[in-house]
Design brief:
single chain; two-stranded antiparallel sheet; globular
Length: 417
């Protein structure tokens, strides 16, 4: 697998300044931003198609190996997708679309069987509906036909009954179907769904294997359809897609959106919602990739997306690189000292998040163990990452000011840091 924390794809790029080169314009930077976005979403689509192929093999021949291969394909698909989230903030078209792909945490009892004592959101009418076991779903006074599990049906069930915990689609629904519940709490261990949950016929475990297969295939089909839609929105050479509209914005407005997206993912979302919330509550329910224990990589690649945008560069799963005019170029030309400080802040955030990955991958302390009550070593790893992200965001705001953008105000998601 090309995606490894030790490969060149995750090493910090440095922006070489060539004094003889022509000055980079703000319009050039805005255009390169759309080029990077398209490359990321295109790669997310490619890896989702690889996941779909692995799911088809699992369904055709359920075994420990084909289930393991599908899990590996899911993890690989997360790498480019996590790098796309920097485009959510400041681009409403992405943020409005994202919920169907990446909503979390979810009440998994909506989807399939769960432990009798599983914790779900209080007052959620869909928390135990179990779509896979039910051909009709009763919510309040309404009965929904679920005879055939299709992409359209699943999309219609998101936020069923008005609860955001009712997540029927996207990466995390697929993750739950592949891994099952993680019943280890803050101890070591991820979900342990057996491959026999996908064996149709008398050797089926978990019951309703035929409908579980339907669900898994419908969810992956919908994931691909959604990613195709967003890939087209950022495709070059189109007259009326979002990339064209973004490039037509006044340069300062485009730069504001770019920097706001970087700062908001860095501060309110990654440092706040994805780390601070889980740590303060000691809650694996608030862990991002909670079924697979892949959260450390998701956090790292969220950060990587911020770096990609700053340097105007992206390297795909197939080692194809796009690179061009960047914020780093603008800052280096206008304020060399700030350029050094911003790159140092990025390097420190990278260092802290790589430490989180190293502890998870080499030392066996995954994120859900780090947040466990009394694990001071794990808590400090997370605190260090949060502090580095806060500092990184402060420099993003300084970059904005140096480029003539006042009061950037990245989204804090109501967290104090």
């Amino acid at each position: 697998m090309k995606y490894s924390i030790l490969t060149a794809s995750i090493l910090l790029a440095t922006a070489a300044v060539n004094p003889a080169a022509a000055a980079v314009s703000e319009k050039d930077v805005a255009k390169q931003y759309t080029t990077v976005a398209h490359a990321v979403f295109q790669d997310a689509l490619t890896t989702a198609e690889n996941l779909d192929a692995a799911v088809d093999k699992l369904v055709a021949n359920p075994s420990e190996q084909t289930l393991a291969d599908a899990k590996a394909a899911w993890k690989a698909a997360r790498v480019p997708y996590q790098q796309s989230e920097v485009f959510r903030f400041g681009n409403t078209i992405v943020d409005d679309w994202e919920g169907q792909l990446n909503a979390w945490p979810l009440d998994e009892g909506l989807i399939d069987y769960v432990a009798q004592d599983y914790t779900h959101e209080l007052g959620n009418p869909g928390a135990n509906l179990n779509i896979i076991a039910s051909k009709s779903l009763k919510v309040g006074g309404e009965t929904l036909d679920a005879t055939n599990i299709t992409p359209d049906l699943l999309a219609s069930l998101n936020e069923l009954g008005g609860s955001e915990a009712n997540v029927a689609t996207g990466y995390h629904a697929i993750e739950f179907l592949l891994w099952g519940q993680d019943l280890h709490g803050t101890d070591a261990g991820a979900g342990e769904r057996p491959y026999t949950d996908f064996v149709e016929g008398k050797n089926c475990t978990g019951n309703n294997c035929d409908r579980r297969v339907q669900y898994l295939q419908a969810a992956t089909d919908l994931l691909i359809a959604d990613l195709k839609e967003m890939e087209q929105q950022w495709a070059p050479g189109q007259k009326d897609n979002y990339a064209a509209k973004f490039q037509s914005l006044p340069a300062k407005q485009a730069l504001t959106r770019i920097l706001y997206g970087m700062g908001s993912l860095s501060l309110g979302e990654l440092a706040g919602e994805r780390m601070k919330v889980a740590l303060e509550a000691n809650s694996p329910e608030d862990e991002h990739d909670c079924f697979s224990d892949n959260t450390h990589f998701s956090h790292f690649y969220n950060w990587k997306g911020i770096e990609n945008v700053y340097f105007g560069k992206y390297t795909s799963s197939e080692d194809k690189t796009v690179e061009g005019a960047s914020l780093a170029d603008l800052v280096a030309e206008s304020n060399p000292k700030l350029s050094e400080d911003m790159q140092a802040a990025l390097k420190d955030a990278e260092k802290q998040l790589k430490t989180m990955v190293r502890y998870a991958e080499k030392d066996g302390m995954k994120f859900d163990q780090m947040i466990g009550a009394g694990n001071e070593e794990g808590a400090q790893i997370i605190r260090n990452s949060i502090q580095a992200l806060v500092l990184q965001t402060q420099y993003i705001e300084e970059v904005a000011g140096a480029l003539g953008i006042d009061n950037l105000n990245p989204d804090t998601a109501d967290h104090d840091f």
